[in-house]
Amino acid sequence: MTAIKFAWSALGGDAALLPRVSTLVRKDALQGRLPVRELARACVGACALAGAELAAGRSGSAVPGVRVDDGAVATAFHSERQLLVDGRAPVGFAPLSRFWRTADGWVRTHANYPHHRARLLNALGVPDDVAAVEAALAERSALEVEETVYAAGGLAVALRTPQEWAAHEQAVEVAARPLVERARLDSAHARVLAPLDGSPLLPAAGLRVLDLTRVLAGPVATRTLALLGADVLRVDSPHLPELPDQHADTGFGKRSTTLDLAADRHTFEELLAAADVIVTGYRPGALDRFGLSPHALAERRPGVVVAQVSAWGAYGPWGERRGFDSLVQVASGIAALEGSLEQPGALPAQALDHGTGYLLAAAVLRALTEQSREGGSRLVRLALARTAEWLVNGIGAGAVGDDSYEGPRPWLAETDSSLGRLRYALPPVSFAGGPADWARPPVPWGTDPARWV
Q1: CB burial class (10 A; 0-12, 13-18, 19+) of residue 264?
Q2: By the 8 A CB rule, do 233 and 209 touch?
Q3: In contact, 201 and 32? CB cutoff 8 Å
């Protein structure tokens, strides 16, 4: 089964629509030992097809053709690296976010956020100094570091081979789940969406998306829904600022506000009451105390679509752990496959984040199509670890292609914004009559009022 056929099936899509997708295969795009190009192409293609399907349903026309260009996909999967703000390159990984030698192997830490850096240093009992961290880790086993840092609320993961990960209880739980978890939460009436008219075709036009995500996978999904016409309002805690460059890269088409979910409960409830889609990307269960579990949301807002993304899945012994793309690569054996046990490597892009993000957007779009026919509040859920399992064990290498990927230039654009002059990667999601770019540039974090427009 081809990768896009598998992804489309996991989304519950009609296989008869797959011939609507055409691909421009380019060699040298997203090169790695694993079939990253094929994964990326499938995730973007499935997302574009889901958008085209919903657009057809709302416009009463045939499903438009979808075009997937490996060049556009490769550029978009590096969007956080392609961003320039007034000519300045983005800030990458922090000094303490990297691989480290341990007494018996390797660990990778993630300390881009100040609170994660503080917890890492506290767990190790060392000052904020690379040499001190290096010395402390060299004296401990990788698994000891993993557990000690996790217990302190930080992030560190031991390097594993694919075989070691496959034997882990969390990996067994992950492999037993579908790539896209889909559920109907109630018997709410079918959603009636207003017909589309005009150009471009915006399948998500008129829909309000409450964006409760951070980092990359979730924001990529909501950025894609914004491209397709949704009114996306990203809500962050005022106590946890987002990294500015990361927020800019994933903020195209969106508005941004801050809200204390406990202190500003009334305002938050007003937002929930009018939201059509709620996307969460925090650690599983972290938002349940605010009444944001899927069933609680469906009770308060019948007909809602709830979309969730996490690192390890909302189940198993690691179900409540924090995680990031780089750490999932290390735990799942990807880092060992892309490098070795002597010198671990990484995928050519943060493909687990980007791929999962496009699949999450696709799952929302398909849920909206199904709602329009059958009704019901819907839950869709994905995990980076499940995408990783698919990449390692479920996708084969595709055709090399006759065309070459000679760099991102054809798929980059520039625009003015309140952040400055931006260079950015254009969206790879494309179908006939659909949008070619976002309607608005990103805004500074927390700029907008906490209300729908």
Answers
A1: middle
A2: yes
A3: no
Reduced to 3 states, what is the DSSP secondary structure of residue 121?
helix
Contact 83, 421 (CB under 8 A): no
Both tokens of 423, joined, read 């260079």
* DSSP secondary structure of 230-263: -EEEEEE-TTSPPPHHHHHHH-TTEEEEE--TTT
In Å, how far from its chain's centre is CA 198?
30
Could you give the CA distance from residue 222 to residue 214 in angstroms, rounded to a whole number?
11
Residues of the chain with pLDDT under 50: none
Length of the chain: 453
Helices 384-393 and 325-332 cross at an angle (nearest 10°) of 50
Residue 346 DSSP label? -
What digits encode the pLDDT tens for the residues 146-177? 999 999 999 999 999 999 999 999 999 999 99
Q: List pLDDT tens digits, range 322-366.
A: 999 999 999 999 999 999 999 999 999 999 999 999 999 999 999
CA distances from 322 to 88, 202, 218, 279, 341 (A): 30, 34, 14, 17, 24
- Write out the two tokens for 104: 């018996």
Both ends of the chain: CA-CA distance in Å? 44
Torsion of the alpha carbons at 191, 53, 223 and 436, rounded to the nearest 10? -130
Helix axes 36-59, 3-10, angle to 10 degrees: 50
To the nearest 10°, report the CA torsion of 194, 199, 201, 206. Answer: -40
**Parallel, antiparallel or unpaired: strands 277-280 and 84-85:** unpaired
∠182-270-278 over CA atoms, to 5°? 20
At residue 48, what are phi and psi to the nearest 5 degrees?
-65, -40
Across the beta sheet with 106-109, the strand order is: 99-101, 106-109, 156-158
What is the distance between the alpha carbons of residues 114 and 112, in angstroms, rounded to a whole number?
7
Q: What residues pair up with 236 in beta bridges, in sequence order? A: 258
C-alpha closest to that of 419 among 112, 84, 82: 84
Structure tokens at 322: 């924090």
What is the pTM assigned to this prediction?
A: 0.97
Instruction: State the sign of the Cα–Cα–Cα–Cα dihedral 7, 11, 12, 18.
Output: negative
Cα–Cα separations (whole angstroms), residue 170 to 144, 167, 173, 281, 404: 18, 9, 5, 19, 39
